[in-house]
From TrEMBL:
Reaction(s) this enzyme catalyzes, per UniProt: N(6)-[(R)-lipoyl]-L-lysyl-[protein] + 2-oxoglutarate + H(+) = N(6)-[(R)-S(8)-succinyldihydrolipoyl]-L-lysyl-[protein] + CO2
Signal peptide residues on this chain, from the entry's feature table: none
InterPro entries: 2-oxogl_dehyd_N, 2oxoglutarate_DH_E1, DH_E1, KGD_C_sf, ODO-1/KGD_C, THDP-binding, Transketolase-like_Pyr-bd
Documented EC number(s): 1.2.4.2
Keywords: Magnesium, Metal-binding, Mitochondrion, Oxidoreductase, Thiamine pyrophosphate, Transit peptide, Tricarboxylic acid cycle
Record's subcellular location: Mitochondrion matrix
Pfam families attached to this UniProt entry: 2-oxogl_dehyd_N, E1_dh, OxoGdeHyase_C, Transket_pyr
Protein name: 2-oxoglutarate dehydrogenase, mitochondrial
Cellular component GO terms held in the UniProt record: mitochondrial matrix; oxoglutarate dehydrogenase complex
Record-linked PANTHER family: 2-OXOADIPATE DEHYDROGENASE COMPLEX COMPONENT E1, 2-OXOGLUTARATE DEHYDROGENASE
Length: 1022
């Protein structure tokens, strides 16, 4: 094809120049409108002169001006000479071409130039249809859209006149699928054009010529350029009709029963439902066993009822509203959510006699935010079902036209599709393109021709289809399933439809789209159109149609009656159900997270050993040697080793561990080195892949991600939702960047369990700490995560270890950990409990190599009585008490400094420097939920101490505003004062997170550390 591309681009220019003036064949309706839209104009195929004129001979060498430019004609001549010398020296397609051409030329001397010219022009025309035929397809059911048909679909551009229509032309037989390969090298122009129009300009507009892969294009051409139009038999047609009746009646039924309720109906796009069902049936026939669906509001209830088969009585009962779900395993119901956001999962029988598991993922109002979550969940399913070819689990996303074009997360998600550790073997995208977004027209909503253009970046084929043509919708839906199962990559179905009512049922659409709605008011529904078609074809009788309507109506009514007795259960809303896991109101045991010393030693060796024949970078060799010594000696364990020990021990226990994010393999701060590279061969070695004998290579996954926060975090969230026995971690490059994924934190992570009863143990590592790197690399915005926490600042919950449900009842955990051992335990705690809760970690930067930020191996093990063991056992320490061996009562301590994170080490250094042994420093390692019990234990220990909260963040940031009321609640309960008695030491309030001037940083940092240790009492607030 390279030759063809090269020739066609130069030739196209030449054609425009020379033949443009002589245009005699004008069929296009070219509007001057600036609107970027669809139109429905049709090529004029009226009969043309029947007699072919005698071609005027043009010697090849004189074609330069009229057809090809000089370079191309020389190229062609050279090609011909080469072919004459040796037919094998040219591409097979040219061999074919010349063979045919010489055959013709031999019998008709002088025809040669003409034949070449015309054949080349025809090929360009064919190609133009393949590339741009969709621009002429009749996609808009309303017939309102006006689009300019590209010049290159006009035969006149290639010099063809009316007189040429019934002339036979030499088209050749090419190494290409579709009708060019059918061994009919000679055809009339009319036959060729009819074929092109039928294939490319009907109810379906195919966009695929942006795909570079020849095999894929040929596969599509075979499907598109079929000699006979698609035909469905009577039975299939009846099935489709039945499905369309269900879809249409469902909306009608809701509209009549709940006239004032918002349901974001599908009216105008009802063919989505039969389309999806046929897609699922086809997918099931091709081996798909489970489908994860993500979609927004539009048509969601219809999809839930008709596609996912959520019992209609449940949907109706939710409409009637008010009933909170009751469950056999507890009373927790969270806050709930509106019905068109809820998820669910069901097994659905398919036409082919299979069963397919469908899960619809719950989503927030934020359009498209669910996309990466669906893809991540699909990938999770693939891992757990050992679906190595990714053909059994499929992700399907349904989009709106406005949101698909407008939301950046769409692009971010699409870009995960080909990445080895994120691919799911192709997502099928369906756009319900109702040509409006709320009140916004496409011309104000996007700059691209189609709302789907973003998918072209992926080499995904895009099938635009007129939503009024049920059979065309079904056809492309099936084709999409076939594509996905064949090429394991993304594909887009763009159903061009309309929205019969307003954005929701209460809106008046004519305020903003008067012309469109005038047309819509008189426009028949897709069902009416299809019924008429089948009646005209004699494939069904009116009685037959009525029978289906009656059946559907009576089921809907029956289900409506049953809905009154429906008792919702919370698992009805879950897209996956984890048996045995505790809900927030059920007590779960606190478990030790320590590990047997011998296991620590064994895995410790595995994670610090590099194979003999592997040649790492010199510096890394040293690092691994040092790591090896840490394990051998059992002391000086640093952050990276602590983390690797957590991963390795979880793997040994059979858990799956997945860490993803930007540059996580090496680690942003060059500290992790979880994948090392042979300096000679470039090969990789990942020690954590070699913990178990014959370890499955995905059991531990560490993966650098694309440069996205929103989509990658969403992906990992979806992945984490699939199976509780996995530690799934997303790490931000710097904590600041996490706000690129703010929607995920706000809408999913912090509130997903409350809204949708969906648990996740996703762990998020956000590098945080003030070390003078400026405003953008210091703060992970700890305050925001704390502000979103739902623990009551004025109520101390039950803290008795046997009754404690504090973490379960809280929406998430926020920690700022200061020792490798504590990090190890907090990671392991994520798995070693009977519930799942998101974990936000303010991850360190300079502690990664800090001389004092080290732990002994004994702090990781489960033995008792050694230096790492205290009353809390070998488990995560929510608060680390002062390290100076204080007794239970220290009356001489004049100040208790409470802090969190790396500022502790600076405070401790300062304390040593100024020898303030009468100051105690405690680290609050778990900020949320607040460790009231341990805080009160320390308040008791230091009855005379001034109580100080010290932080390095500005006062309006960091943990202060979260800690202050809670600390005061703890103080008040012990008679230790109120807000006035809590002193603040830290930076003053600031708009920016940190200063950009290093010297200012140093001064500020030293100032706050010194103040915390000053001998005078701390004045309030400064
Ligand atoms: C991220 C986001 N921004 C804004 C909105 C508010 N909103 C709700 S629906 C809608 C229009 C959606 O248009 P489209 O994607 O075409 O879907 P349609 O409603 O037409 O099916 C908007 C802007 C939203 N839900 N999410
Ligand atoms: Mg829309």
């Amino acid at each position: 094809m390279a030759w063809f591309r090269a020739v066609s681009s130069v030739a196209k220019l030449a054609i425009k120049r020379s033949i443009g003036q002589a245009r005699s064949y004008q069929t296009r309706v070219i509007t001057t409108s600036e609107r970027r839209c669809f139109h429905s104009s049709v090529v004029n195929t009226k009969p043309h002169g029947a007699t072919a004129p005698v071609p005027r001979p043009v010697p090849l060498s004189r074609l330069t001006d009229s057809f090809l430019d000089g370079t191309s004609s020389v190229y062609l001549e050279e090609l011909q000479r080469a072919w004459e010398d040796d037919p094998n020296s040219v591409d097979e397609s040219w061999d074919n071409f010349f063979r045919n051409f010489v055959g013709t030329a031999a019998t008709s001397p002088g025809i040669s130039g003409q034949t070449i010219q015309e054949s080349m022009r025809l090929l360009l025309l064919v190609r133009a249809y393949q590339v741009n035929g969709h621009m002429k397809a009749k996609l808009d059911p309303l017939g309102l859209e006006e689009r300019e048909i590209p010049d290159d679909l006009d035969p006149a551009l290639y010099g063809f006149t009316d007189a040429d229509f019934d002339r036979e032309f030499f088209l050749g037989v090419w190494q290409m699928a579709g009708f060019l390969s059918e061994n009919r090298p000679i055809q009339t122009l009319r036959a060729i054009l009819n074929r092109l129009e039928q294939a490319y300009c009907g109810s379906i507009g195919y966009e695929y010529m942006h795909i570079a892969d020849r095999e894929k294009c040929n596969w599509l051409r075979d499907k598109i350029e079929t000699p006979t139009p698609r035909q469905y038999n009577k039975q299939r047609r009846e099935d489709m009709l039945d499905r369309l009746i269900w879809s249409t009646q469902f909306e009608n039924f809701l509209a009549t029963k709940w006239t004032a309720a918002k349901r974001f109906g599908l009216e105008g796009g009802e063919t989505l439902i039969p389309g999806m069902k046929e897609m699922f049936d086809k997918a099931a026939d091709l081996g798909v066993e489970s489908i994860v669906i993500g979609m927004s509001h539009r048509g969601r209830l219809n999809v839930l009822g008709n596609v996912v088969r959520k019992p209609l009585r449940q949907i109706f009962s939710e409409f009637t509203g008010g009933i909170k779900p009751i469950d056999e395993v507890g009373l927790y119901t969270g806050t709930g959510d509106v019905k068109y956001h809820l998820g669910t999962s069901y097994d659905r029988p398919t036409r082919g006699g299979n069963r397919i598991h469908l899960s619809l993922v719950a989503n927030p109002s934020h359009l498209e935010a669910v996309d990466p979550v669906v893809v991540g969940k699909t990938r999770g399913k693939q891992y757990y079902s050992n679906d190595v070819n990714r053909t059994k689990n499929l992700g399907i996303l349904i989009h709106g036209d406005g949101s698909f074009a407008g939301q950046g997360v769409v692009y971010e998600t699409l870009h995960l599709s080909g990445l080895p550790n994120y691919t799911t073997g192709g997502t099928i995208h369906i756009v319900v393109n109702n040509q409006v977004a709320f009140t916004t027209d496409p011309m104000s909503g996007r700059s691209s021709q189609y709302c789907t253009d973003v998918a072209k970046a992926l080499d995904a084929p895009i099938f635009h289809v007129n939503g009024d043509d049920l059979e065309a919708v079904v056809h492309v839906c099936e084709l999409a399933a076939e594509w996905r199962q064949t090429f394991h990559s993304d594909v887009v179905v763009d159903i061009v439809c309309y929205r019969r009512f307003g954005h929701n049922e209460i809106d008046e659409p004519s305020f903003t789209q008067p012309k469109m709605y005038k047309v819509i008011r008189n426009h028949p529904s897709a069902l009416e159109i299809y019924q008429k078609k089948l009646l005209e074809l004699g494939q069904i009788s009116q009685e037959g149609i009525d029978k289906i309507h009656n059946k559907v109506n009576s089921i809907l009514n029956e289900e409506f009656l049953n809905s009154k007795d429906d008792v919702p259960r919370k698992r009805d809303w879950l897209s996956a159900y984890w048996a045995g896991f505790k809900s927030p109101e059920q007590i779960s045991r606190v478990r030790s997270t320590g590990v047997k010393p011998e296991i620590l030693k064994t895995v410790g060796k595995a994670i610090t050993t590099i194979p003999d024949n592997f040649k790492p970078h010199k510096a890394l060799k040293k690092i691994f040697d040092l790591r090896n010594q840490m394990i051998e000696k059992g002391e000086g364990i640093d952050w990276a080793v602590g983390e690797a020990l957590a991963f390795a021990t979880l793997l040994v226990e059979g858990n799956h561990v997945r860490l993803s994010g930007q540059d996580v393999e090496r680690g942003t701060f060059s500290h992790r080195h979880s994948v090392i590279h042979d300096q000679e061969t470039g090969e990789n070695y990942c020690p954590l892949d070699h913990i178990l004998l014959n370890q499955d290579e995905e059991l531990f996954t560490v993966s650098n991600s694309s440069l996205s926060e929103f989509a990658v975090l969403g992906f990992e969230l979806g992945y984490s939702m699939e199976n509780p026995n996995s530690l799934v971690i997303w790490e931000a490059q710097f904590g600041d960047f996490s706000n690129g994924a703010q929607v995920m934190f706000d809408q999913f992570l912090s509130s997903g369990e409350s809204k949708w009863l969906r648990q996740t143990g996703l762990t998020v590592l956000l590098p945080h700490g003030y070390d003078g790197q400026g405003p953008e690399h210091s703060s992970a915005r700890l305050e925001r995560f704390l502000q979103m926490s739902d623990d009551n600042p004025f109520v101390i919950p039950e803290m008795d270890p046997t009754l404690r449900k504090q973490i379960q009842e809280c929406n998430w955990q926020v920690v700022n950990v200061t020792t490798p051992a504590n990090y190890f335990h907090v990671l392991r705690r994520q798995i070693h409990r009977e519930f799942r809760k998101p974990l936000i970690v303010m991850a360190p930067k300079n502690l990664l190599r800090h001389k004092d930020c080290k732990s002994n191996l004994s702090e990781f093990d489960d033995g008792q009585g050694h230096p790492g063991f205290d009353k809390q056992g070998t488990r995560f320490k929510r608060l680390i008490k002062d390290q100076n061996n204080h007794s239970d009562l220290e009356e001489s301590i004049r100040r208790l400094v409470l802090c969190s994170g790396k500022v502790y080490y600076e405070l401790d250094d300062e304390r040593k420097k100024v020898q303030s042994s009468d100051v105690a420093i405690c680290r609050v390692e778990q900020l949320c939920p607040f460790p009231y019990d341990l805080i009160q234990r320390e308040l008791k220990r230091y009855p005379n101490a001034e109580i100080v909260w010290c932080q390095e963040e500005p006062m309006n940031m960091g943990a202060y505003s979260y800690v202050a009321p809670r600390l005061c609640t703890a103080m008040r309960a012990m008679g230790r004062g109120t807000m006035e008695d809590l002193k603040y030491v830290g930076r003053i309030p600031s708009a920016a997170t940190a200063t950009g001037f290093h010297q200012s940083h140093v001064k500020e940092q030293a100032g706050l550390v010194q103040k915390a240790l000053q001998s005078d009492p701390i004045s309030y607030p400064f």
